[in-house]
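Supplementary Note 2. Why include the ligand at all?

Several targets in our set were suspected to adopt different conformations when bound, so apo predictions alone were not considered sufficient. For every target with a known small-molecule partner we therefore ran a joint prediction. The input for fe (ii) ion is given below.
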Amino acid sequence: VATKEIGTVQRTIETAPGETLDLTLSSNLETGDASILMVEDDPGDRRLLRRILEQEGHNLIDAEHAGEAKRLLKSSPVDMVLIDINLPDRSGLSLLAEITSTYPDTACIMVTGEDRRELGEAALTHGAYGYIIKPFSSNELLINVSSGLRRQKLEKAHRLNEERLEHAVDTRTRDLWETNLQLAQREDQLRLANRETIERLALAAEFRDDDTARHVTRVSEYCGLLAQLLGSDREDTTQIRLASVLHDVGKIGVPDQILRKPGKLTEDERSIIETHPEMGHRILAGSQSELLRQAALIALTHHERWDGTGYPNGLSGTEIPLEGRITAVADVFDALTTDRVYRKTSTLPEALSIMHEGRGSHFDPEILDLFLSSLSEILTIREHHLG
Ligand SMILES: [Fe+2]
Ligand SMILES: [Fe+2]
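The joint prediction is reproduced in token form.
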């Protein structure tokens, strides 16, 4: 059996951003005897068609009317159907339309005694590959049949290639989806582990100082809200919320008797407490994780003041990183509105008035204004995490 390459399809498909799949599909068609069904009621024409086409090596079956043709096609599909336009039971054109839609791999050629242009056009519109007018020469018939068969093979190969291509893309896409899903699950687990580690680390600092048990949680919620109000996207908001949990982690390095001392601290004791930003920074800095790097920055700068009178570095204005300025507002508000060993809580109006006094001296005025304008949300968080 001779084989002939009849077509190559090349595709580059983007399966994911930045990832492509190259597919080259070529098809080899076997040339050989075609099976041909002729639907013809005239016995003389049937004989003539059979004689010419069998001489060429084709296999012929015949039907006298459309009903028989449909029955034969159902039991064994053929490569080509030759259809007489005037059949005893229905029009050849409607049979043509039915065959082309039911058997897309079957080529149809109309055979007719009527030489009318509109009939020929109608046949082509209904999907015929050729149109032969009786009486015809054997060459005319053979040329129509061989070109029809060739076109049918090309179209079939093309369709098969398309199907293989579609299948390949489907499979590859499904694989990618599965991989992505697994990656996403792994990422979720990592994020969870990350978060839990941070919370446990914060807890280690909290355990030393019962009065601030929920302080860090509230501060981190306030910080998240402020970041959101400042226009941060969801990811950045989540990050600052998590990172600020660790703002006081440096208190791990402050002795119990100072941290838990009721009443006023001596100057020495105060200076020891004031080492906690640098201590926290030392614990957290140098991490590969952006979250921990941000946490280190927050730990270091949350006691800086807008006017430069804060500690440890006396930074002022926008020298203080944004996350430090945010945490300063959240931290002081929480300290003012919850009991501490060394100080009773202020009433809310007192706390707000102290906060307001710090506008432009202690706090970044823009952040303070945002904070005060969202008081109802702030109070909801406070209620929720008061414990
Ligand atoms: Fe602090
Ligand atoms: Fe704090």
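The longest strand covers residues 3-16. The chain is about 55% helix and 15% strand. Comparable summaries for the other entries are listed in the accompanying table.
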